[in-house]
Design goal:
By secondary structure, the chain is α+β, with helices and mostly antiparallel strands. It folds into 2 domains: 24-86, no CATH class; 94-202, Alpha-D-Glucose-1,6-Bisphosphate, Chain A, domain 4, CATH 3.30.530. It is 42% helix and 24% strand. The chain has helices at 30-37, 41-50, 58-69, 73-86, 111-119, 121-128, 179-202; strands at 24-25, 28-29, 94-95, 98-107, 133-139, 143-148, 153-161, 167-176. The longest helix is centred in the last third of the chain and has 24 residues, at 179-202.
Length: 204
């Protein structure tokens, strides 16, 4: 009589590992970081580990990214925050001066059109509606600083050309009092940027 074969063991259930190209830190995916800085999140984590960033202050990490690696100012802050979150040095959405909400979109429109949609009051109200913002300072085609009232929290907006007829806008709403406020503002800015993208791309 043939010996009975043992029943096959069930494989232990495991959570799928997060692949490098799926890593998301500071509310930003690795593909967006790669496009803006030339490195993915996994690369930046390794680079900053080698540089001793675990023992560095937030400001010093951002300066290292900006001065040594040529990372644009807004992105140097984002990479710093992402690194601090990944290494357990900071809670999600937490900054040195409170919490922050971030959002970004790539739009099929020239960067000049994207910038004008923010700077021109009549154009802005079409997609930002009645949001309580006040423009403080702008640099043509590059950045806008705004204040959200009441509360006076800062909103930093940066723009980058992504080639002919394509551009990107990134928003950081800072100095928020709690993680809950950051989640609320992130949802607000994400919806607003969706309206802006739809408006500009419909007008092509």
């Amino acid at each position: 009589m043939a010996a009975r074969r043992p029943a096959p063991r069930k494989a232990a259930s495991r959570k799928p590992a997060v692949r490098a190209n799926e890593l998301r830190l500071a509310g930003v995916g690795t593909e967006a970081v790669m496009r803006a800085t030339g490195r993915a999140w996994s690369d930046w984590l390794a680079v900053l580990d080698r540089a001793g960033a675990r023992a560095m202050a937030h400001k010093d990490i951002a300066l290292l990214l900006s001065r040594k690696f040529g990372v644009p100012d807004w992105w140097s802050q984002m990479v710093t925050v992402g690194y601090e979150q990944a290494r357990g040095l900071r809670a999600a959405r937490e900054r040195t001066d409170g919490f922050a909400a971030t959002a970004s979109r790539t739009v099929a429109a020239p960067v000049t059109h994207l910038f004008d949609a923010w700077c021109d009051d009549a154009a802005r109200v079409r997609w930002l509606l009645d949001a309580p913002v006040e423009v403080r300072r702008s640099v043509d085609g590059k950045s806008i600083r705004m204040t959200w009232n009441p509360g006076g929290s800062p909103v930093q907006v940066s723009f980058q050309s992504r080639g002919p007829g394509k551009s990107q806008v990134a928003v950081e709403h800072g100095k928020l009092k709690s993680a809950a406020s950051a989640r609320t503002q992130k949802a607000f800015w994400s919806a607003a940027l969706d309206r802006l993208k739809a408006l500009l791309e419909a007008g092509r």
